[in-house]
Write a structure and sequence with these properties.
Blueprint: H1 2-21, H2 23-58, E1 66-69, H3 80-83, H4 91-100, E2 104-112, E3 117-121, E4 124-134, H5 138-141, E5 146-149, H6 154-159, E6 163-166, H7 168-175, E7 184-187, E8 190-198, E9 213-217, H8 218-225, E10 233-240, H9 246-261, E11 272-275, H10 276-319, H11 321-329, H12 334-369, H13 380-406, H14 410-417
Parallel strand pairs: 4-9, 6-8
Antiparallel strand pairs: 1-10, 1-11, 2-4, 2-10, 3-4, 5-8, 6-9, 7-8
């Protein structure tokens, strides 16, 4: 073991010496590895950051969350003309499923209001605020964090009380630094009392954020908008209990809703059951494909880098032929010479890789400054991958030069080097 530590030390010294004595030649040889590692890790870091941002935007909802509506998230075998005839989900269906659907943690009836609505406090007006008209159970489905106040409770939800919960940005625009709790604002042409303000979230990759939203009881909004098709977009958001078989739960959900709507056996569903898990799986699939494409493209840069390392190692063998002959004549084994040059190749490749990783780190910091809330992340896992790939390239590139060095005849090596 000690002899290999000594070999590693000597190889490290030779590698550093090569960098010092032949700066331009060594730098050009390492450039391929540097560019290759930079390309691979930059792609991995960018895709990881994108995936983290997307899943972070979806993290408010559990992967098991189910959304029932007359629209579908993805492609459908149902003709478009038939889909357009599907009825909206109703408040009565929400009440029915709430009583009759087993293994359910929470269900919320939600009205999507196109274009949002203006909010007014005294002389200050904020236009186009995204209004979430929901039942009180929505609090148990989405991960809300409050800066102050609370969400509306069941009596307020059922009665349609004129209360409102504001996103951080909406509260700042309307009230500035003053306390909004208990104040009344105008919404839908009516007064509503502020009972809560959400913590600042920041903008997601989809461009949406709870900071610019406000939440009111769905029955408060129904008094104004009703449920006329096309005016609002109703949906049911359902969260199953932990550990429940998803397929069985969806089958029971479809059975109950078909039963309520009187859909006969053999007829297709006139609603869509959309699973959030399917969307996250789709995201995983896309990011996986991006990673593969990036790795293939970056692999060509590494191929060039491998040839560069091999070239510098062949030159190094030729320059040190005399030294190799002397080492062998003093009893150095072939595996000692082999290990020495392999270690040197690996060290040179890792140096090139570390330079590439450093460049990625600098670029990620600079890029994050220009992308607002989107943060590029160079994870420890990606750093480990970059280092291991560099070492592997050095190992592969150094094998042939190391074998040629280990097989040199000591007498011929000394004679050739003189």
């Amino acid at each position: 073991m000690l002899i290999y530590l000594r070999v590693f030390k000597e190889s490290f010294v030779f590698a550093i010496s090569a960098l010092r004595n032949n700066k331009l030649r060594t730098a050009l040889s390492l450039l391929g590895v540097t560019i290759g590692i930079f390309s691979i890790i930059a792609v991995l870091a960018a895709v990881d950051s994108l995936e983290k941002e997307i899943k972070g935007s979806l993290s408010a909802l559990d992967n098991s969350t189910i959304i029932v509506m007359r629209f579908n998230f993805g492609p459908s075998d149902v003709p478009r003309w038939k889909r357009e005839q599907f009825p909206d989900v109703t408040y009565e269906e929400y009440q029915y499923l709430k009583k009759n659907l087993p293994d359910m943690e929470a269900i919320s009836f939600v009205l999507g209001i196109p274009g949002g609505a203006p909010l007014k406090y005294q002389e200050v007006t904020t236009a186009g605020v995204d209004i979430g008209a929901v039942t009180h159970e929505y609090y148990n489905i989405e991960a809300f964090e409050f800066q102050e106040g609370r969400f509306f409770n069941e009596p307020e939800s059922v009665s349609g009380s004129p209360v409102i919960v504001l996103g951080h940005e909406v509260a700042e625009n309307l009230f500035g630094s003053s306390d909004p709790l208990g104040k009344e604002i105008r919404i839908f042409g009516r007064n509503a009392r502020v009972i809560g303000v959400l913590k600042k979230q920041g903008q997601s990759i989809f461009g949406n954020s709870r900071d610019g939203q406000a939440f009111v009881p769905v029955n408060f909004a129904r008094k104004v908008y009703g449920t006329t098709k096309g005016t609002v977009f109703p949906e049911l958001i359902i969260k199953p209990e932990d550990g429940v078989d998803n397929d069985e739960f969806i089958a029971m959900l479809e059975y109950q809703l078909r039963n309520f709507r009187g859909i006969k056996s053999g007829e297709i569903n006139n609603f869509f059951v959309n699973q959030l898990q399917g969307f996250t799986d789709f995201i995983d699939n896309i990011t996986g494909q991006l990673n593969i494409i990036g790795l293939v493209i970056s692999g060509f840069s590494l191929l060039v880098g491998g040839f560069g390392i091999a070239n510098i190692m062949f030159v190094s063998v030729k320059e040190r032929t005399n030294l190799i002959g002397i080492q062998k004549s003093l009893g150095a084994k072939n595996r000692f010479i082999l290990s020495q040059f392999l270690f040197e190749a690996i060290i040179l490749a890792v140096i090139g890789g570390l330079i590439g990783l450093f460049i990625v780190w600098i670029v990620s910091i600079v890029a994050s400054q220009f992308t607002g809330d989107f943060q590029f992340v160079l994870s420890p896992w990606n750093i480990l991958i970059g280092t291991l790939v560099s070492a592997l390239i050095g190992l592969i590139s150094g094998i042939l030069p190391a074998i040629s060095a280990s097989k040199l005849d000591p007498v011929e090596a000394i004679r050739t080097g003189m």
